[in-house]
Specification:
Organism: Acidovorax carolinensis
Pfam family, one: Dioxygenase_C
Bound molecules: fe (ii) ion
Largest sheet: 6 strands, mixed
InterPro entries: Catechol_dOase_N (IPR007535), Intradiol_dOase_C (IPR000627), Intradiol_dOase_core (IPR015889), Intradiol_RC_Dioxygenase (IPR050770)
Family: Belongs to the intradiol ring-cleavage dioxygenase family.
Low-confidence stretches: none
Helix content: 25-40%
Structural class: alpha/beta
Protein name: Catechol 1,2-dioxygenase
Length: 306
């Protein structure tokens, strides 16, 4: 065998094996390779275009930006939409909507009981408190839930990714009390954009798209017997609230801000002047399996042996 047609080559690529391999991986690879062969032929992709794309993928991985592209091309939200559809089919409704995790979670943030400051005693911007309860679908408190919270700094950077920030800066875990209560003090984070002069920005410039995300705060809420909830809340008033690069904003996750709240009762958070507050309850579904209650993020799930 030396001369091959496109179809013969594709057949060989998709059928060759010396061992059973992994049937699911074989199935998915076959589909993706077949679709790409078709794309290259139908759109008459040139060798220069192909190798430019291969080089871009290499640079994307080296820059650690795979998770930015998956969000920007809609895959993260697609997986959430599919999860919502599966829930609807299974008759599972209610609770706080899920929202994409994003690529910037870091496990192991310091844990506090009931309340904490995320800003580590260095006031930046508007003093902000978010508080509420973790509840089940019947409105009952979920005690000892773990509320993992993380957000960007005043210029849109995340600790462990943005130079000059302390480990776990603006990242904390809060364990709820018997009433399911949590609260934290921080500042209102701004929106942010994909890094300029990066593989991600290159593609977005070529697509004529912006790379902005509206202001938001991330959460991962976990508790024994409850379905782990990954979500975000959005700060109202952001220019991009309905035009998110990552398509992640959702109804029910845009918080209301109360301005000029009296400081009484907030002394333990170092507050002595009127401040901005939002109240938000996280409502969790019961876990349908032990797997659903695992307090793991998306990459922990796929790298943790079952
Ligand atoms: Fe974010």
């Amino acid at each position: 065998m030396s001369e091959l047609t496109q179809a013969q080559l594709l057949e060989l690529v998709n059928t060759k094996k010396i061992a059973p391999g992994n049937a699911r991986v074989r199935q998915l690879t076959e589909r993706i390779v077949t679709d790409l062969f078709k794309t290259i032929d139908e759109l008459d992709v040139t060798p220069d275009e192909f190798w430019a794309a291969a080089g871009w993928l290499t640079r994307l991985g080296a820059a650690g930006q795979t998770g930015l592209i998956t969000a920007g091309l809609g895959f993260d939200r697609l997986l959430d939409i599919r999860a919502d559809e599966a829930d609807a089919k299974a008759g599972r409704a209610g609770g706080t909507p899920r929202a994409i995790e994003g690529p910037l979670f870091v496990a192991g943030a310091p844990m506090s009981q009931v309340e904490v400051r995320l800003d580590e005693g260095e006031p930046k911007g508007e003093v902000f408190v978010m508080e509420g309860q973790v509840l089940d679908l019947n409105g009952q408190p979920v005690p000892h839930a773990s509320v993992d919270v993380w957000h960007a700094n005043e210029v849109g950077g995340y600790s462990h990714f943005f130079p000059g920030m302390k480990p776990y800066e603006l990242r904390r875990r809060i364990e709820t009390d018997a009433k399911g209560q949590y609260r934290f003090r921080s500042f209102l984070p701004p929106g942010y954009a994909i890094p300029p002069n990066s593989p991600t920005s290159e593609l977005f410039e070529a697509l004529g798209r912006h790379g902005n995300r509206p202001a938001h705060i991330h959460f991962l809420v976990a508790a024994p017997g409850m379905r782990t909830l990954t979500t975000q809340v959005n700060i109202p008033g952001d220019t991009y609230i309905d035009d998110d690069f990552a398509f992640a904003t959702r109804d029910g996750l845009i918080v209301a801000l109360e301005k000029n709240v009296a400081p009484a009762g907030y002394e333990s958070l170092g507050i002595s002047a009127p401040f901005t507050r939002t109240k938000f309850n996280f409502v969790m579904q019961n876990a349908a399996s032990a797997d659903e209650a695992l307090p793991l993020t998306r990459m922990e799930r796929v790298s943790t042996p079952a």
